[in-house]
Amino acid sequence: MVFAEAQTEFKLKQVAEEPISSVKFGAHSNQLLLVSSWDSTVRLYDVSANTLRHKYNHDAPVLDCCFQDAVHSYSGGLDNTLKSYDFNTTTETVIGSHSEAIRCVEYASEINAIVTGSWDANIKLWDSRMPGSCTGTYNTADKVYTMSLCGEKLVVGTAKRKIIVWDLRNMAYPSQKRESSLKYQTRAIRCFPNKQGFVLSSIEGRVAVEYLDRNPEIQKKKYAFKCHRIKEDGLERIYPVNAISFHSQYNTFATGGSDGYVNVWDGFNKKRLCQFHRYNTSITSLSFSQNGTVLAIACSYLHEMEAPPSTPEPETAVYIRHVTDQETKPK
């Protein structure tokens, strides 16, 4: 494992002052980055020029966002509302709503639909061509905390450590229901680009690598490991692992924790490839660009650790880091 030297890394300008909930590059972009925030905004950045291109608002904090294509985004949050925004015409459209906060928003290109997951314990599918066109509501029994698309598969993590897998082509019933192999609340799930499985993280400094194929021989390969822990004065502090992002080419992944560190892992060979320098506060979201040469790193103070009295809160920031093969390619 190498400690990564400081590569070309810079801060985005005109970032929200409230915590960042999500950063996402487009599926075909190394340049355009969406950033949603607790300040109720969604911002579009051109990272190569370090410029804010567009900004639009919700009526309450935004918890997630995604691209459909280079000119359309979707977002949802504590106003329970799913919005789309057209960056060409600078027009926004209310697509629909949940009865509670929308926690997750993803665009499923396989079926040309938007998928939302909510604290109302429902997944909804929306036709991207028509406002108000909910094409299905699917109960998850518990609050949705995180979800990820794996081709035509949808992997959802809910409260009570439940993992539910659907096939988007047939949503009549889940294709799998599991319990997380981690003991504590699920914080993030992301699927391998090769579609073989997924990685999930918990609030208690652990990450699990799981496989979708239920063949017992394949299931023997799953494992979990400890990470984002710091030993100080003989005590081990354990931090939530808030963010996961996959390198699309190498099937390696980055994790970000409330310890302020970003680690890059080779999940198949069970190795940590590198650790970046420590950031000023918790890592809340990560996104590799489409070709894997750039990593967006959102840092926001989450009030999880008690700050000493009269200490100013660390500033919210989004860093754009150019990463190398040495940091991200399996050895």
Q: How does the SSE layout of this entry go?
A:
Blueprint: E1 2-3, E2 9-11, E3 20-25, E4 32-37, E5 41-46, E6 51-57, E7 62-69, E8 72-77, E9 81-86, E10 91-97, E11 102-108, E12 113-118, E13 122-127, E14 134-139, E15 144-150, E16 153-158, E17 162-167, E18 176-179, E19 186-191, E20 197-202, E21 206-211, H1 216-219, E22 223-226, E23 229-232, E24 235-238, E25 241-246, E26 253-257, E27 262-266, E28 271-275, E29 283-288, E30 294-299, E31 317-322, H2 325-328
Parallel strand pairs: 1-28
Antiparallel strand pairs: 2-31, 3-4, 4-5, 5-6, 7-8, 8-9, 9-10, 11-12, 12-13, 13-14, 15-16, 16-17, 17-18, 19-20, 20-21, 21-22, 23-24, 25-26, 26-27, 27-28, 29-30, 30-31
